[in-house]
């Protein structure tokens, strides 16, 4: 009995010590916590691809050194893929944006924007339904633009672009943690599973729900970025007069913004075409944006692509699209851009844990209920 009590006290002490040291470790790494979370979530999202690469090496007649280093090679390949997919387009976008802004004639930009605003006022005046609610808004906007508005906006964008060095630093840290989580992910998962007092079935359920949801968000976002950016870039190349590649990259990045998305790019382009008197071109861009980019790519092709990946990799998830959208918006509001994948992963894990808790409660209640039914039936028989 005494040994049993000592063992219980030892377990309680070790649990408290582990929690305390874990809290201390989180405090020490608090400056890197966002990067660590993003790296971990990205590793979860691409775990299916990572495992497929490792299995491909297993099934191939590769040399012994390749077999021995298969996890490291797979981690390097995926990290390089992210480097080329995110880092290089971002460098191009920021450098071109900075060059464009640096060479701007502020007075010419101000006059152009004011002329476009006057054109908008003239358009609104023709429609009585719009005149009342928009008249004050337009007048205040024009007053702002005629004052310091353009300088404030341009200087703000310049400051944002100039501070891109910090963004590059963030990407480097994220890629480093992503590489490490891919390389040692199986050991981390095994260690975490041993700490959790849960059955293997429940642990696998939590893992499937989290990786499935994050994979859907991640691959769906990648598809949207690539498809919408490519589609709008091709359209701009056909129309001519624009830097099609630049606008395509910008559209891809803007497509991740919830609700607004690529409208941040094509609406100003439509305004420029209207101002230039190219009304047919403006209508074509508007129709293309709504039909091809908004409906076909976002609502049909993306779902087809995700369905194909689900069959290919077999990932599962139970969260619906509305919850995923809310989780993305909440994640971005809390963690910034990288909340795009952190938000859905946290909510998926929370819902999966709640489902397990609910099922455990049902399992514990059912035997009690059956006992009560048997007792009641016994009383009625004796009566």
Question: Can you lay out the helices and strands and say which pair or pack?
Answer:
Elements lengths: L1 H27 L4 H13 L1 H13 L4 H5 L1 H33 L3 H20 L2 H35 L1 H32 L4 H40 L4 H11 L8 H13 L3 H35 L7 H15 L3 H44 L1
Rg measurement, Å: 28 Å
- Mean pLDDT comes to 76
Number of helices: 14
Beginning-to-end CA distance, first to last residue? 46 Å
Total beta strands = 0
What is the helix content? Answer: over 70%
Portion in strands: under 5%
| Biggest sheet features | none
Number of domains: 2
Low-confidence stretches: none
- Label the structural class: mainly alpha
- Which outline best applies? elongated
SSE order, one letter for each helix or strand: HHHHHHHHHHHHHH
